[in-house]
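Handout, section B. The chain below has 342 residues.
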Amino acid sequence: MKQNFAKIAALTALTAVLLYFFGRSVEWREVPAQIADVNIPLFLLAVLMSALHFVTRAARWHILVAREKIDVRFRNLLAANIVGFTVSAVFPGRLGEVAKPLYLARKEDLRASFAVGTVVVERIFDLATTCFLLSLFLLGRPLFASAWPVGAEAGERLTFWVTAGLILAAVLVGASVLLYIFRDRAVGVIGRALKPFPERARNAVVKALQGFLEGLRLFRTARQLVLYSVLSLFVWLGIVLFYWVFFFAYRVHVPYFMVVPYVFLTAVGASIPTPGMVGGFHYFSKLGMVLVLGLAPGPAAGMTLVFHAVQIAVTCALGYVILAREGLTLFQLRRLGESEKP
């Protein structure tokens, strides 16, 4: 009980700090008018496109879960992604990352530890893909220097972020490969290292590690690895396309490739485990619009609020429909996610 209270207090404080920096230097009296100034047809198109990443994520995920069961139904892969994001949109701690695979395991009779392990692989590839796209953007910067709307400071700060991200991605990928190569020894070593901890927690960690290592079996097949990498690019290029259309709806006419660093920064903010990405998404989205796209703080804050509201509304609407058909509640899924956490 005390641990939960401390966790909630810490996340609340973090959210408040991020929202403070988000709202700083914004003339809020002007924001409503800026939000209302939108191209309605393009806005509606962007709303529809906000669910596109569920489809591409489901197609990509099938490659991993096919190792356990080849005929997994696509509608269950799609539904699992939606309910997972819905849980993360409502509850703190990114519980949706656990509820998502457990929902699929329940629907498709998969081993829970294996399903959870595939999501860990997904997140590693998400990190690597966003860093790769940002690297291409920075390497190609001399080719479109005239389209860069801000000074060298933006390039320097983005270079810092992509360098840090690439190092982290390289460490995670390298550690994953080493864990797979020495999987039996790794499981034994980690099991012994966790002996001081309660048996339930120790068993949960070992079980999750074993599932994760099975998910890494895709590294044994070059064709599957390439296909998964290509689909990861489709996932994130689709997300870039969604924001690009949204920017055009608000009459911010920027080249498609200029949205890449903005999406990278929003991904950093979304990874902060606050409920519904509140605070983290807001601060980094505004930072990206101001730093990368050269927008004023007011319009940047207004568009950020709209972007976030649309994504949460669409996700939760789809998630609630799926849960209603299944006879489930968000609290049941939250307990499901908490039960698998060490």
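Note. The chain has a mean pLDDT of 82. Compare this with the example in section A.
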